[in-house]
Amino acid sequence: MSNDLDNSSAGLSQIIDRPVLNDCWNKIGVMGDRSCTELKNVIHCHECQVFAVVGDSLLERKPPLNYVDEWISVLAETPIDEETQNNETIIKTASAVSVMIFRLGNEQLALSAKILQEVTHPCIIQPLPHRSNELFLGLVNIRGETLLCASLSHLLNLESVEENSANALPINSQRMMVAGQQNEKWVFPVDEVYGIFRFHLNELRDAPVVIAKAAQSYTQGIINWQGKKVNCLDSELLFYTLNSKIL
């Protein structure tokens, strides 16, 4: 960029070693008086080679002495307050797992966030003649994609909060969860979705058959969340059962 550009082009590799950055964009560039002749070609300083080299020099410079060790100490000594005890903050460790917590009837349940595709408002469930039943509710159109819809309440043999369970969950559900991987997706009507939360694996407690009336236990373990016990479901066993009973 004019004389500054000529000087910079003559020794681009020297910019990294300069203690003072050549911020010509603030003087003759878009942040300055726009007198740089290179603006006709590059339009904006962000597209200029000088700007790119200066940016690289910032990223490639060596960190100050003990910089990494100081940050490790800061993170290790971060105090735990009431908010962190509620498990609503992000836990950035390799031993943490993300789950989607939701409610079916009076039960708080959780599924791995890895298999969660989306949460949407209730959609019309189209039953299939001679195929739909209490477990397989029918087909649902989600963003133009036709997906199978199943009742987790029936699979887990959960009691409905309403006395007349025949007209309870599928029609009046507050949310629908789309879960699965690749081409294997299922839609589950649920009463309430709380969101995604992270927990340490050592917080997962072993449990017997938590869902008492279920023929099998689909629960991997129990976690405590906001003073409530949440059953973490085994997604692999869940999908295996759905595939074997419906498909």
Q: What characteristics describe this protein?
A:
5-stranded mixed β-sheet; alpha+beta; 8 helices; 247 residues
Can you put this structure into words, describing what you see?
It is a single chain. By secondary structure, the chain is α+β, with helices and mostly antiparallel strands. The chain has 2 domains: 2-60, no CATH class; 96-246, CheA-289, Domain 4 (OB fold (Dihydrolipoamide Acetyltransferase, E2P)). It is 24% helix and 28% strand. It has helices at residues 2-10, 39-42, 49-60, 67-76, 82-85, 152-155, 169-172, 235-246, and strands at residues 96-104, 107-112, 116-120, 136-142, 145-150, 175-181, 184-190, 192-200, 219-225, 228-233. The strands form 2 sheets. Strands 8-1-2-10-9 form a 5-stranded mixed sheet, with no helix packed on it. A 5-stranded mixed sheet has the order 3-6-7-5-4, covered by helices on one side. A hairpin with a 2-residue loop joins strand 4 (136-142) and strand 5. The longest helix is centred in the first third of the chain and has 12 residues, at 49-60. It is elongated. The protein starts with a helix and ends with a helix. Mean pLDDT is 77; it is low at 4-19, 80-85, 87-91, 163-173 and 209-213.
